[in-house]
Write a structure and sequence with these properties.
The chain is built from 11 helices and 3 strands. The chain is mostly helical and about 290 residues long. Strands 1-2-3 form a 3-stranded mixed sheet.
Amino acid sequence: SSGINAEYGGAVTREEAGEMIYPHSRNLWLPNGTLAMMNSYNKDTADMIVRDYYRITFVRDPLSRILSAYRDKFTGTQAMYEFRVYRQAYARAICEALQVHFLDSRPDGDRVPDEVYAYIEGELKKHCHPTEELEKDIFISLGLFWAFLIFVPDDADEALGSIKINAHFKSMTGLCQHCSSIFKYDFIGSVETLSDDMDFLKKKFNITLDFPSINSTQEGAISTEEVRKMWDNLPAVLREYALVHLEDDAHVFGYRGYETSLDKELYPWHNEKQCISKSKDSCTCTGM
């Protein structure tokens, strides 16, 4: 969504680091053009990666990352098949997931204020079309998008049926397992300090590497001003919940300004389960 797949970590052996040529590292890309995940390798290769590779990952400001993904997938004018899928089938699945897994079942009960239910119900009636209008675009408003991220549980793949939730909509820590005791990263950089981080890595591995620059006018990029405007346009009833949704990534990677005043008793039930199952203080990445 930013022109850089910032939440994916690339694996490069220490011995082969000098051979890395962006963006076609043979260790990172599969023959079909998709990024290689750990489950792309057999067990012996995966064990070798965990044991011997110098592991690098880049993260991004959580709010900027999510808003950029929303703008790219749901508000663009692209006519390509991928974007039609998001504006039609994917958008319809989001509408149905919110209706069935949040409004109808009300898993959070009184934990969520009536005004939140009323807002989401109004947005669904305003934007979501009958399922028989399969070829008609559905406008997923910013509020509906956030409501989906916040209130549909993390196993949203099941709620979406045959449509899998896009990786850009998931948390960075959930995707790349930064807190895992098995797969530990040797270097965690950030999009915000990309130039300095790459200079460090080039010096460390004696690499000559021309890395593309991203500016606020380039297609796919999102400026600080745009992020602020989109945040200001988010209904006030959802802002505190949005901060709750982003706080894990913000805490782990040291991004500030994500503190919330929302009482933990009002958290969605699946957020509470996550808080019980892990200690945030045990995984804090510093020195980015």
